């Protein structure tokens, strides 16, 4: 009789342990699936793949940002302004053809639209973000943060890596810059003319002096 009780208790204990184990497995949540390719925050509206958004390396002055920015939403977004701790200001620039048929760079009126679930592509010689007044040199490998503002006033930050592409396709001597350069050249030319005038006047004086000396003798 004693042995029967022992077997009964053992069976009940085993059944209890199995039941507890089953409940524990049922209550334990499944591990979340992490998408390693999608590194954008859950509430992000824009995204750019690693190394796809980049800034041209520069020692000082101005430089540009290029690359692709994806719109993760089902509605069109429009970038109307930008700023970065890397420079005094950031402008949205486009390349247009002026009345003389030259390609020149100018600040765009409005903004850069990004189609719903589409992308904004910025390439050298085309639309880009212009960093003006760099605070320090940007060398290859640096990471630059840029905050973009949309038409509704909201903002979102994104990062770009600094690269040295070995080129500078944007016509930087545009509008005021070009006019200033032409003005400097004109002044320089006028200065050369003045020097020639003074030089000619000096030769004339020298000739008169020589003539008077000859007459005296």
Automatic annotation (TrEMBL):
> Region (Disordered): which ranges?
164-217
Q: Keywords, A to Z?
A: Signal
Keyword GTP-binding listed? The answer is no
InterPro entries, per the entry = LpqE-like (IPR007410), Lxx211020-like (IPR058248), PCuAC_sf (IPR036182)
Compositionally biased residues, Acidic residues? 184-195
> How far does the signal peptide extend, from start to end residue?
1-26
- Composition bias (Basic and acidic residues) maps to 164-183, 196-209
Domain of life the protein comes from? Bacteria
* Database matches in Pfam families: PCuAC (PF04314)
Q: Give yes or no: UniProt keyword Lyase.
A: no
Known PROSITE patterns for this protein? Answer: PROKAR_LIPOPROTEIN
Q: What PANTHER family does the record point to?
A: BLR7088 PROTEIN (PTHR36302), COPPER CHAPERONE PCU(A)C (PTHR36302:SF1)
What name does UniProt use for this protein?
Answer: Copper chaperone PCu(A)C
